[in-house]
Amino acid sequence: MTIIDGKKVSTAVKENVKKEVEQLKAKGVTPGLAVILVGDDPASRVYVNNKKKACEFVGFKSEEFALPADTTQDELLKLVDELNNRKDINGILCQLPLPKGLDENAVIEAISPMKDVDAFHKQNVGRIMIGDYDFLPCTPAGIMEMLHDYDINVDGKNCVVIGRSNIVGKPMAMLLLHENATVTICHSHTKNLKEIASGADVLVAAVGKAKFVTEDMVKENAVVIDVGMNRDENGKLCGDVDFENVKDKCSFITPVPGGVGPMTIATLMKNTLKAAKLQNGID
Ligand code: GUN
Asked: Which of 8, 83, 215, 279 is 20 to 30 A distant from 203 in Cα terms?
């Protein structure tokens, strides 16, 4: 059993971005990422801080817009509009979820597709669907990069994704499909989840429930990817997979923390670099 080291892979990705940033800076371009955080969700605050730290590491300019929870839709859209028009900002990220009362879809659609480094805009989602894209969504693309780094080939494999969110589950299934996997998406209405999951060569858990994936749901020698970021009964960070009981059954497994999370951020850095290059006509 191998524990996949997402921290190590993500550092290598960020080192590559950093080198490219140095070359861009020599041409007078410093990539800029705007990060919008509305309200005071503690988990979102941690994610945003980590994104800012990564920007510093690779040499981007990052600008944070921390807005109060009672920000109106109009105020938020006005900010997005300003950022769309700023030359020094190449990527715009609005941390989700937004507080109740704000329309996430409207905010996502307001972000210029060229600056949509999360790849959430429907134009980018459509382009991913047909395989002609500039940006890939950060978490699924980070997972694919981790699989490649460990020489895990999904071609012809049974891959099961638990979760169907627009951020992870759906695009994850699409990226696996692009690499010729046979993909099944399971969700809260799936009737025979255990049966399906336990047939998976590659199992991706993106449920948002602590230790949801138990030993009996995992096939011997499966590759298990844990997207979860939860707190257990003692307040300790844990994933969607019951790691201690599942790990010995796997050929590969990602830990939480130190698995998927760092890869999400590394991909965001790649996307922002690409956005800066595209917007400046550099290839
Ligand atoms: N909330 C959870 N994951 C993400 C992400 O990848 N991007 C943004 N913007 N919000 C998130």
From this structure: 8
Catalytic position from the list 14, 115, 118, 157: 118
- Tell which one of 96, 108, 138 to mutate to probe ligand 1, the residue whose CB is within 8 A of the most ligand atoms: 96
How far apart CA 26 and CA 23 sit, in angstroms, is 5
Cis peptide leading into residue 137 (ω within 30°): no
The one-character DSSP state at 218 is S
Q: What is the mean pLDDT of residues 253-259?
A: 98
Q: What is the per-residue pLDDT for 236? A: 93
Asked about 116 being catalytic, the answer comes back as: no
Q: Whose CA is nearest to atom 6 of ligand 1?
A: 138
State the pairing for strand pair 32-38/91-94.
Answer: parallel
| Encoded amino acid at 271, one letter | N
pLDDT confidence of residue 283: 85
Ligand 1 centroid from CA 19, angstroms: 26
Reply yes or no on whether the pLDDT at 65 is more than 90: yes
Query: Is 123 among the catalytic positions?
Result: no
| Burial (CB count <10 Å: 0-12, 13-18, 19+), residue 275 | buried
Q: Is 149 a catalytic residue?
A: no
CATH, domain range 138-261: 3.40.50.720
Q: What distance in Å separates the CA atoms of residue 221 and residue 230, rounded to the nearest whole number?
A: 25
CATH class of 28-112: alpha beta
Structure token pair of residue 41: 């969700």
- Please report which residue ranges of the chain form alpha helices under DSSP H: 6-26, 42-58, 73-84, 104-110, 122-130, 138-149, 169-178, 193-197, 243-246, 260-279
What are the sequence ranges of the domains in the chain?
28-112, 138-261
